[in-house]
Amino acid sequence: MRIDGNPIDLRSLEVFLGDAPPIVELGPQARRNLERARRTVTEILDRGQVVYGINTGFGKLANTRIDADRLQELQRNLIVSHAVGVGPPLERAVVRLAMLLRANALAFGHSGVRPVIVERLLGLLNDDCLPVIPSQGSVGASGDLAPLAHMACLLIGEGEATLEGQRMSAAEALETLGLLPLELEAKEGLALINGTQISAAIGTVAWLRVQRLLGTADLACAMTLEALEGSIRPFDERVHRLRPHPGHAEVAANVRALMVGSEILPSHADCGKVQDQYSLRCVPQVHGAVRDALRHLGEVLQREINAVTDNPLIFPEESEVISAGNFHAEPLAIPFDYACAACAELASISERRLENLVNPDLSGLPPFLAQDPGLNSGFMIAQVTAAALVSENKALAHPASVDSIPTSANKEDHVSMAPIAARKLMAVAENTTNVLAIEIMAAYQALGLGKGLAPGRGVAAAVELIGHDLPPLTKDRYLKRDVDVVRKLMDDGRLLDAVRKAVPELS
Predict the structure, then answer these.
(1) Is residue 52 among the annotated active site residues?
(2) Which of 52, 338, 444, 478 is catalytic?
(3) Is residue 274's pLDDT more than 70?
């Protein structure tokens, strides 16, 4: 992969979530961009011009001029003083993306750093030498200062790092790689920390994970619909042409495709049942709205990962420096918040379908899908676990972006809280994954308790795959293991891969 001052495609970043991310190099155009912007910084210093971020203090101290012979000390002080994050470290996939995105933003040539800064970031990324970045401490303006400072610390041999997964001091990691700490020049420390890349990286990882859940949620619905002998008519294409939200049509088409060839559907065509519960009948409307919300977040992230978000900005063509507000992460915070709410809804409707499966008054199936109920509790507490996760999601879905708190002696008087919104989205995605796993597990069991008729081709493919690793529940057993089996099939992609092999048109 090459960083060359050209846009990165959002979906291409999924490779950085795995154990073998691609090698990244700095391209020649990016090098030229960097050199040109750096010359502008050098010319400003040579003229003795006073420019914020180049030869002044920062934030409330912006009016304090710093002598030329102390500019290296200024940049180092900036990094170590701002590296005060707390909380558990960000996961490796997020750190990888943050390093890549920061390098990409710098490579557009409006930040004024030397090429060696970007080369060192990419080199460390390629060597699997990652900074340990605490997850808390950023308010999403003026940039993700604290966490990005922990990233920058690695370049100067401060703080902690992991090298091929082993945690150690940053100094030890650089020494092991045969590298000397960098001496940061004027503007470079500020350019490294004044940006939205931590928020964007967390949000991108969360978005990629939720994308995987969309098809899985439609599959869970189809499995439950078959198990409960529900109606396919609410998924009729004609219904969704009359309310043309794109997500509606996609979800309805998915469920229809998953149930093609079903022997169960025609078996209850004349059952006399008028309407299903909303959690079955309104799936295109709910799942579709989630898809549309996440589609917009994807568009926002696509722009943000290819944006220059530090301050001040260098415009080499005009030899001009402009202090502005591209570091403010409000464009991310608001979409993160409603994506968080959307993802929570995916879990909420899944849990209600699960209730329809385990409640004998609604399903016509044995209580809690247990054989010999009473002696066996079956899926009683599996539903309780799902309910607990759904309720936790409700608390997490409270928007972070409506909050603000002044910082830096009121110089930074309105902030976005984007990293908090992103972390909440990540947590809701994790909870929702588990809720869907429980629904799929229960629907698999319920299908085995039916009349022995074949479900649709997509549902049948899922049942066959799950059956390889998970025998039907004939008596109570350690059920956490069953959840883990289904969850693993979801996480490693095997479940959707098997279903897509049977239903290639699944979106």
Answers:
(1) yes
(2) 52
(3) no
